[in-house]
Amino acid sequence: EFVWQVENIEEVLKDVFDLVIEKEPYFGILDHFCNSFFRNLQGEMQERAKNFLLDYCKINFSDSNKMNVIVDIVRHSMSEMFDEILLLFLSLSQDREIFSKIWWRGNGTSGSGNVILADIEMADWRNILSIVEKSTVGIKLIPIKKYLNEQIEYCLKSGDWERQRRFLERY
User: Fold this and answer.
1) What is the pLDDT of residue 160?
2) In degrees rounded to 5, what are phi and psi of residue 106?
């Protein structure tokens, strides 16, 4: 967190992000290394970090690799920004292809006990859709909303299949 106390660090951090993202492939497992710059921030440092992420998103919205790192940081270290990053992305791009390559809900689902994993995933997609519906972009978001509804429908079918399989295994 001390990095945000350095004057004009944003340009250096942009270069660090670009280099790390280019050289170290990220597969969505665990937190990305760049999260280390965004943990436990307060006050002015948190505001600078937030502005950095927003600016980095504005510059790199069409690069799904960089967007995946931004979303990972927002999901793990700056969760209060998730809606803002998602809505900013939508204002910059309504490209379904790019949107579908970004791990908005993370990469995978885990649970324990009798939990239906597809239900967890479906809840995540419904939450993302509810945020998308807050956007003022309008009709241009139809392809993205269609994609989200397809994900929800797939999860619904998968959840039903999981429930059916568990029921049949008991008998």
Assistant:
1) 93
2) 95, -175
